[in-house]
């Protein structure tokens, strides 16, 4: 399993996204870091263990679960967050829209949140994983995009992008149908699963079926340790849902998903070269002809 994880910053995002899945001792360390981020950048591993009433081995284990080689790398990442502490969670908490809020104020709130979601998403991105996923997309015999709820909208969007450059694509948002489709995928095919939580039961089952049959499975979800991320061959992540109040706000999630899909689409176009342009032009010409007929 490969994940889109960068060592640059995003320590707080990482902690918030997996804290619910940590063991009690690890959670104590994680909570201490979140509550004393600036202080932790100045203390030793032993001091953190003592302050959080845990042990040296617990701190080390947490560092590795977060994707760091050790405490030194965690501190370096945390330091980046401390000096750039205007995170998404803070922005969401500060959003206050009422009847008295001006249109200008609403615009500033919505755009500010969207900008920060994309900034945080970029902070946890590993370009090497993006490149590998693009390679898998280009060589796939068949691409199948699936998702449920708001993630289903992203799956349909991905389909609408990739089929126009000549790739063999399907898409479905019906859980029964996409599970059956996944069961028919074989080696050389690619299943692209979009799930905000990474815990949608049918989506995870579809990923397991496709992987069992030898297909490559790519997951797009929030940055978290989830059943989906553990199943997929490659994982791409938006800003962590567990990090803030995203349970009740779908817009930031979709913004991150669509942006990553666009990134993959553009990289795939570059990889395919002239053939992508030729196929795209064919779809434009066909659409224009249909408009002319109906006008």
Automatic annotation (TrEMBL):
Keyword field contains Membrane: no
Domain annotation SIS: ranges: 133-274
GO biological process: carbohydrate derivative metabolic process
Keywords assigned by UniProt, alphabetized: DNA-binding, Transcription, Transcription regulation
Domain HTH rpiR-type: 9-85
InterPro entries registered for this protein in UniProt: Homeodomain-like_sf, HTH_RpiR, RpiR-like, RpiR-like_SIS, SIS_dom, SIS_dom_sf, WH-like_DNA-bd_sf
The keyword DNA-binding is annotated on this UniProt entry: yes
Pfam families, sorted: HTH_6, SIS
Protein name (record): MurR/RpiR family transcriptional regulator
GO molecular function: carbohydrate derivative binding; DNA binding; DNA-binding transcription factor activity
